[in-house]
Amino acid sequence: MTARRPKATIQAPLVLLDWRDSSHFRRDAPCVLCRKPTPLRSHDGEAAHKTCAETWNAGHPGEVRFVSDAQSKRRGDDDHA
After folding, report:
1. Does the predicted model carry a pTM greater than 0.70?
2. Contact (CB, 8 A) for 40 and 49
3. What DSSP designation does 79 have?
4. Is 57 exposed, middle or buried (0-12, 13-18, 19+ CB in 10 A)?
């Protein structure tokens, strides 16, 4: 009997979220995706780790559950998170 290779799944590329604004930080609550504590909040107030949200977005292309902040218009703005 030969082993079967797992079926390949196609995922959207991982897009990093920009959650620098202080509105994304509150008291620890369980992440809605992994259930581990996090101080981070999505735009809708859901407790979610940034990495969990980015992974969820990659696995659900076309859905807008987790979004980035609007891009800053300040001069010299760097691309760091």
Report:
1. yes
2. yes
3. S
4. buried
Q: Which residues pair with 37 in a beta bridge?
A: 30
- Beta strand 37-40 with 25-30 is antiparallel
Q: Report the C-alpha gap between 68 and 64 in whole angstroms.
A: 10
With beta carbons less than 8 A apart as the criterion, state whether 34 and 52 touch: yes
Phi then psi for residue 75, to 5 deg, are -70, 145
The radius of gyration of the chain from alpha carbons, rounded to an integer in Å, stands at 16
Whether residue 56 contacts residue 33, with contact meaning beta carbons closer than 8 Å, is answered with yes
Tens-place pLDDT, residues 58-69 = 999 889 899 999
pLDDT tens digits, 7-65: 666 556 788 999 999 999 999 999 999 999 999 999 999 999 999 999 999 999 889 89
